[in-house]
Amino acid sequence: MEEEKVKVLIIGSGPSGYTAAIYASRAGLNPVLYTGGEPGGQLTTTNDVENYPGYPEGVNGPQMMVDFQKQAERFDTDVRYGMVTKVDFSGYPHKVWVDDNKVIIAEAVIIATGASAKYLGLESEKTFANRGVSACAVCDGFFYRGMEVAVVGAGDTAAEEATYLANICPKVHLIVRRDEMRASQIMQKRVLNTKNIEVHWNTETEEVLGDDSGVTGIRVVNNKTGEKKELAVKGFFVAIGHKPNTDIFKEYLDMDETGYLNVIPGSTRTNVEGVFATGDAADRVYRQAVTAAGTGCMGALDAERFLAAKESVEETIV
User: What pTM, to 2 d.p., does this model score?
Assistant: First the structure.
């Protein structure tokens, strides 16, 4: 099997991966970046981005990621299309397998594999993706200001998204599958005390309805009585959680019960020396493009300092 030695390997693209690449390449670390199965990450499925600084007129999500990639390549980042399928962080330097046919030996590894939003699994969700169906109210809620919307979920994320939308929408329907919420007591109280949020208990979404203009409503069913009804909404926000794309690191890296990588507070350092976690793979709270880019910068700076310290020690030994 082919082997290649690199100084810095970045696993994944998106805002964190490309930002890490920009900083690492400008520092002369000659980073190699593998894009993963979804080059550009979640933003490639987002039509309009209006909350990222530097784009006063907004920007198309895929175009934004093209811009990020071009900037990284301008400083000679080696961007490659491929999927990391296996890692071995038991020794140093680190070993990473790409597409099961190549081994990269890396002195520092920056993880930027992101997270994937969970959906209900309805075919109509896919049909109206980015045309009324969204997994991020903070990202897309602005486009539905003044319109009636629905949120599905029962945890803190759903409660936060519902209350956020209630500030800009006249009516928010919160679809809860059981007769209680999983959200913290303070978030539940906030939802129940917000007059323009209507909670639909014991209710599941059966279908997202729409036409050429996008979402026009949802059909829901009460799982206790079997009663069905249609809610006329323009936006349907799925807030049932995210799954970090971190399964291949389970054997070596500390993570929480849902798979978010744990880092030393105030840094991107993991429990393995020379491995750094950035973006949504380690961010269980904010999950925004701008925060992902910020941690990408941190990851590159942490990697640069780690390598400089290692070289200094080696020079002293010599």
Answer: 0.81
